[in-house]
Amino acid sequence: MGKKLVSLENIIFRYEGQSRNALDDVSFDIYQGEWLAIVGHNGSGKSTLAKLLNGLQFAHSGTIMINDQIMTEETVWDVRQKIGMVFQNPDNQFVGTTVQDDVAFGLENAGVSQQVMVERVHGALNKVKMNAFLNQEPHHLSGGQKQRVAIAGVIALQPDIIILDEATSMLDPRGREEVLETVRELKQENEITVISITHDLEEAAKADRMIVMNQGRLYREGPPQDIFELEEELIALGLDIPFSVKLTKELQKNGVRVVNGHLTEEELVKDLCELHSMM
Ligand SMILES: Nc1ncnc2c1ncn2[C@@H]1O[C@H](COP(=O)(O)OP(=O)(O)OP(=O)(O)O)[C@@H](O)[C@H]1O
């Protein structure tokens, strides 16, 4: 496990005029190089967590520490440099007229020299496999490609952490796969730390660790295999377990000896093929 990069301690936050806390004594850590998925039903506090991590709101009590710096109104601009956000709607975050302008936008604002900018734009687009689209206009791109450009815009700024706030929820299955594959590769190659906030437990299954939020409280945390063992509890919280986990349970009930822990359909299919070849 890498070093502790983010630490939340006893965070309490309530929106003005509301009778209950949106975040109620939430504590957890995030380690360098890990992919943490934060899941929960509507209103469980996921987006509020993202707002606090990005300094758009401040906790009423408790501490958020990001790479050894405590988040306060005074440090927020420094801390924000360490975090890149990718949001839900691919169309709302395209600010350039072409792919390369879009990726360069944040670097221009950061006052980076022309030479460094060109290197970083090309490097970032290479990493998300969008370098063949440098001069394309956004309306020629699919949703998945637009989100990959948004990710390139973020990694060009070399943050320590990327937060994906429901970044795949408006994409078709292919776009979703493209974006998740990009995240997986980035994480593997660059030791970047990923926080994905999602309704989608199939997506969360790809993370190293999951946090389940419920009514502003941290309900459970652990590796996806352990979290999906909570099957009935997750369903009671309004969450749906991945298809491969459900199918594994049904197959086992019917006497098929598949092993537990298949978080993707591919893994389950591989196991079934191996069982079949032994028959
Ligand atoms: N701007 C706001 N003003 C008042 N209350 C808010 C505001 N935003 C969120 N809330 C409340 O705070 C709580 C947590 O909401 P939050 O949006 O963080 O949940 P979420 O898990 O991200 O839900 P969703 O998946 O629907 O976005 C909910 O009770 C919600 O009604």
Automatic annotation (TrEMBL):
Compartments, record wording: Cell membrane
Keyword Nucleotide-binding applies: yes
Membrane topology, from the record: Peripheral membrane protein
SUPFAM superfamilies according to UniProt: P-loop containing nucleoside triphosphate hydrolases (SSF52540)
An annotated Gene Ontology molecular function: ATP binding
GO cellular component: ATP-binding cassette (ABC) transporter complex
PROSITE patterns the UniProt entry points to: ABC_TRANSPORTER_1, ABC_TRANSPORTER_2
Keywords: ATP-binding, Cell membrane, Membrane, Nucleotide-binding, Translocase, Transport
Domain (ABC transporter): residue spans on this chain: 6-240
Superkingdom per UniProt: Bacteria
CDD domains per the UniProt record, alphabetical: ABC_cobalt_CbiO_domain1 (cd03225)
Pfam families, A to Z: ABC_tran
Similarity comment: family membership: Belongs to the ABC transporter superfamily.
PANTHER family: ENERGY-COUPLING FACTOR TRANSPORTER ATP-BINDING PROTEIN ECFA1, HEAVY METAL TRANSPORTER
Name of the protein in its database record: Energy-coupling factor ABC transporter ATP-binding protein
